[in-house]
Amino acid sequence: QEKKIFTVQGPYPVIRSLLRARGWVEKKLPSTGRVGNQPGRHHGSQEKQRQEEEEGGAGAEQGEAVQSCLVRDQVPYFIWTSRCGAVDSRLLRRDQVLNHYAQVGAFTTKEGLCLNLRNLPWFDQADPDAFFPRCYRLGAADEQQAFIEDFCLTAARSLLKVALERAGDVPAGTEQLPKSGEGSGKHQVPRSHVPHPMPPTVGPGPPLPPQLVEEALRVCGQHLGSLGHQDIDGDPPYPITTGTDWDRFLQDYYRVVHEGAGLALSRAQRERCRALLQRLAGRLPQLGMEGNHNVWILKPGAKSRGRGIVCTARLEEVLRLAGGCVAPSAPAGEWVVQKYVEQLLLIFGTKFDIRQWFLVTDWNPLTIWFYRESYLRFCSQPFSLHHLDRARHLCNVSIQKQCRPAQAQHPRLPPDQIWSCRQLQAYLARVGRAGAWHQVMVPGMKAAVVGALRSAQDLVGSRKGSFELYGADFVFGEDCQPWLLEINASPTMAPSSAVTGRLCASVQRDTLRVVIDRRDDPTCPTGAFELIYKE
Question: What CA–CA distance (Å, rounded) separates 435 from 423?
Fold first, then answer.
């Protein structure tokens, strides 16, 4: 009569325990994976189902087992599953609560996010280029061509940056702020005082001719002109790269940036480089974070946990890999290529990302709750743009478990490669950036989450009575601005460390406070969840 019957699919002992403590009774799933009278996916043998039930607390008291048996023919009113496809939400009653929405691939797949964030200016004043690294779907012929154009233009800008850096000059708008954690780790050191990893101006062999810089100046000047004449629809300013032998230009660019070849730069060219890059900085929000190595990250469109991801700095390699050489199961149509954030905020010389949870309790009106706790995931090797291996550049726990930690790992890095956001805040305070978390990082993450959801809102299958918890992954630029990498449905709740064990339990507890307790008491506490958006 109180409708306190629930079903949980998968190993979620915290959810089970919290619901039982509220007086709910579990309707156990049979081995067919059916939820109540609703068809679901088959999830393996009876043995696998038994193991999952054991993980979820099948050894409960005998009274609970009896209760579960008594409700086996009843409708569950709260359903928590590990995948949306386990339940056909169209067959549910209005009073059944489900922890998923349909069609969320519009923002939880790499392809969906890549495609739909471009529509954000139609819904909001926000510019997706300010928080989402530019991205292309390689299976679409027009987008593949746009990527090739972008790669070439980025190479031209990078060449101008390298030329100026080697001349001891960094133009405004492209500054490389000091990397946190380098040196003593106490206060920031101006980058001009940190030895630069690039070779000196004169590299092996004779310097490349000044015509190379002249060509880069011409291309970047044309690009700047086109940016000033984009039509109201925001069509990309392509093609700009006609009239240039790009095969030869890119080979020369690779020699300068990756092999250390010398580069001749006249005084007049130096002034033109500086002025042009300063003007481009005012039109390109990503000029500062893109660095000068032209590294891109290639991702299968719908995979998770870092599977199949490759970093590369050469155009021909991107096109070759997207042809299926890495994972033939992912045809070119499912690959996306995204600009890698080169100018990263590092901690003790090591890359990290952050898993940030948020909760949607309605799509019409769109209602978003942001979790005030989050956790960091560190790479196992020191950051380097000269080595593009997974151990240095992919922070996913499942990837890093396969990598050996660095022999000379910084002693203050966590052995389990996980920090809480509170540890990050303490670190930022120690290096003189105490206000960055609350003034820059959190507001930027909130804006990115709201922007991503608004851009996909009309494509999601909205259902009253459903809710969904998501996990967004961010990295931060050297200026502490967040860059959204992806959004995950069904984020892992597995306790991979002491920090995640505590935080994953907390976010599950607070999710139930929002979606169950608030129905009876709208004034009840919601834990660390903060309502950040309601239309």
Answer: 14
